[in-house]
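Figure 3 (text version): structure tokens given as input.
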């Protein structure tokens, strides 16, 4: 059941890439874009559900199910019923290992698995009159995000120079070219955020296996780690109020479509891991 659910959830992302010729996690977002929530309960979406609703591009961050629309005695607008967004219902699964001393299976961890999906509609797709809420400007200086994280972490180093940007787990160091060598300040900040997300996977932080187990470019862990960094960097750009326009080649887009079709679960895992990385940096 869960494999079918994953395919349904990810296929809507693939369709978006094919129709817009743009990776949806690379669009210029506003800072509030990644605060999507259920309008009726106020519960903020997490992981993939946050990601898939955010990329729809609605100004309103509230979402409702069909049952909630009916309970409000409201309606979905004409022509919008088939334009719903599918999100996942997650169930906790325990991980067991046999205790060699007692001979009994013991819980050593857990993970969440999507067991079904359901459709939601943005408030803008309904005739619900949204509450008028005064929103404060939440843009944060990029330097504040980076410097605060470096100061609080105390171990990660940032070096400027050379002509390549990368994160070295062995030296726990981000290396990035001088800001003046970039075509735009936005490009510099987006690149720095990308490497900063990679750095959160260090064994002393989130100990993300896609980083610590990395063996060669193009393998499974590399692809997932790059997706985590891409999504996370775009979220940080939105928090900082940065719009970084990215023009991807047709082959690059086709590569991601192929990867998502072959391994749909990679996007669900990456969106969840990227949120943990962003939370670590901004908390």
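Below: residues designed for each position.
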């Amino acid at each position: 059941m869960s494999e079918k659910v994953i395919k349904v959830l990810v296929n809507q992302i693939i369709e978006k890439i094919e129709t817009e010729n743009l990776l949806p996690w690379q669009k210029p977002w506003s800072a509030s874009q990644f605060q999507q929530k259920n309008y009726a309960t106020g519960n903020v979406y997490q992981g993939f559900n946050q990601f898939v609703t955010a990329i729809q591009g609605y100004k309103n961050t509230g979402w409702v199910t069909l049952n909630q629309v009916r309970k409000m005695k409201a309606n979905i607008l004409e022509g919008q019923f088939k334009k719903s967004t599918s999100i996942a219902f997650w169930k906790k699964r325990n991980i067991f290992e046999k205790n060699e001393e007692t001979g009994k299976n013991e819980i050593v961890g857990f993970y969440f698995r999507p067991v079904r999906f359901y459709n939601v509609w943005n408030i803008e797709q309904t005739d619900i009159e949204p509450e008028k809420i005064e929103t404060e400007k939440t843009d944060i200086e990029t330097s504040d995000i980076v410097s605060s994280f470096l100061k609080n972490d105390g171990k990660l180093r940032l070096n400027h120079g050379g002509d390549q940007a990368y994160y070295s787990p062995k030296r726990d160091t981000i290396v990035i070219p001088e800001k003046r060598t970039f075509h735009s300040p936005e490009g510099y900040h987006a690149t720095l955020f990308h490497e900063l997300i990679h750095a959160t996977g260090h064994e002393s932080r989130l100990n993300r296996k896609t980083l610590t187990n990395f063996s060669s470019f193009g393998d499974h862990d590399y692809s997932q780690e790059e997706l985590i960094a891409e999504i996370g960097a775009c979220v940080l750009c939105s928090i900082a109020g940065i719009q970084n326009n990215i023009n991807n080649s047709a082959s690059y887009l086709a590569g991601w479509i192929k990867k998502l079709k072959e391994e749909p679960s990679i996007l669900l895992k990456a969106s969840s891991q990227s949120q943990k990385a962003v939370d670590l940096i901004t908390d």
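The two ends are 36 Å apart (CA to CA).
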